[in-house]
Amino acid sequence: MKMISVYDSVGCILSHDVTQIIPGEFKGRLFKKGHVIKEEDIEKLLSIGKEHIYVWEPSEGELHENDAAIRISNLVLGEGVCKSKEIKEGKVDFFADIDGVLKINKDELFKLNSLGEIIVSTLHNNTPIRKGEKIGATRVIPLIIDEDKIINAEKLIKNKIIYVEKIKSKKCLLITTGNEVYNGRIKDAFLPVIKSKLGYYGSEVIKQVILPDSKEKIIKEIKNGLSENVDMIVCTGGMSVDPDDVTPTAIKECGGELVTYGSPVLPGAMFLLAYYKDTPILGVPSCAMYSKRTVLDLVLPRVLSDEKLTLEDIAAYGHGGLCLDCKICTFPHCSFGK
């Protein structure tokens, strides 16, 4: 790459984008990489302070920033992700190609960013994502990079770093427990909450059963739901450690595998997760009725994408598991669950 005077640049090809900034009015690309400079362009270049331009004369073993960014994109992008059709100022943006849960291989991402001169930036792992949402970007630092740096990255990274797990539509059985609700002393407030949170992801409550605090009756209805092949069972009410709250015991004794009773998330400490074969059973604490965001908002999209969560997955939520209950909620683009 060599520098030449703009007065001698007619007919030359720009090796990079040229940005124009008009304070308070405009910031953007004046000329695109690859633009062939014309006589009338000279005055425009001078007006933004460009008295010289850089013309790249490629040498063997060198890559332009755009070409390097494309190769990095091809290296890191997996299923459910697409990239920008146009490269601006050497940067390629990444977008979700489907509704789902963003997955980031954090170990591989760290290795790639540790090489130097190569950067990949992403949103947080396990963020629920809508199709078309921006989820990351890449570029290299120098305008011209040694190709060996890219080759080393291609040898080092063995797994895709960024992908989106598709969220599936599921049919849910809602079992609401509590003597006060069963006997009509208070109105159930769980149904609209669970319907809303499931509906946001295209799933639905196909049946609600309201039961007293009876372990045997709860077990019976869980087994009925399993025999009817529902995709998921959500149990609400009776999730504390009071002697009358028997829902956790009923879930444990229904024949499934208990993952956890308790989570390091506030609100949501009394959350329960179990599986009967591949059918998830969620015990949702009362905080879900009145808090905007709880542990349910963190776990639900992952369950709906058919990820089988482990105790380690739940334990990891302790770091970032405190909801600040902001007046204006920006979840999932906040610190909660990150």
Automatic annotation (TrEMBL):
<dbReference type="InterPro" id="IPR036425">
    <property type="entry name" value="MoaB/Mog-like_dom_sf"/>
</dbReference>
<comment type="similarity">
    <text>Belongs to the MoeA family.</text>
</comment>
<keyword id="KW-0479">Metal-binding</keyword>
<dbReference type="InterPro" id="IPR038987">
    <property type="entry name" value="MoeA-like"/>
</dbReference>
<dbReference type="GO" id="GO:0046872">
    <property type="term" value="F:metal ion binding"/>
</dbReference>
<dbReference type="InterPro" id="IPR001453">
    <property type="entry name" value="MoaB/Mog_dom"/>
</dbReference>
<comment type="function">
    <text>Catalyzes the insertion of molybdate into adenylated molybdopterin with the concomitant release of AMP.</text>
</comment>
<protein>
    <recommendedName>
        <fullName>Molybdopterin molybdenumtransferase</fullName>
        <ecNumber>2.10.1.1</ecNumber>
    </recommendedName>
</protein>
<keyword id="KW-0460">Magnesium</keyword>
<feature type="domain" description="MoaB/Mog">
    <location>
        <begin position="173"/>
        <end position="305"/>
    </location>
</feature>
<keyword id="KW-0501">Molybdenum cofactor biosynthesis</keyword>
<dbReference type="GO" id="GO:0006777">
    <property type="term" value="P:Mo-molybdopterin cofactor biosynthetic process"/>
</dbReference>
<dbReference type="GO" id="GO:0005829">
    <property type="term" value="C:cytosol"/>
</dbReference>
<comment type="pathway">
    <text>Cofactor biosynthesis; molybdopterin biosynthesis.</text>
</comment>
<keyword id="KW-0808">Transferase</keyword>
<keyword id="KW-0500">Molybdenum</keyword>
<dbReference type="GO" id="GO:0061599">
    <property type="term" value="F:molybdopterin molybdotransferase activity"/>
</dbReference>
<dbReference type="Pfam" id="PF00994">
    <property type="entry name" value="MoCF_biosynth"/>
</dbReference>
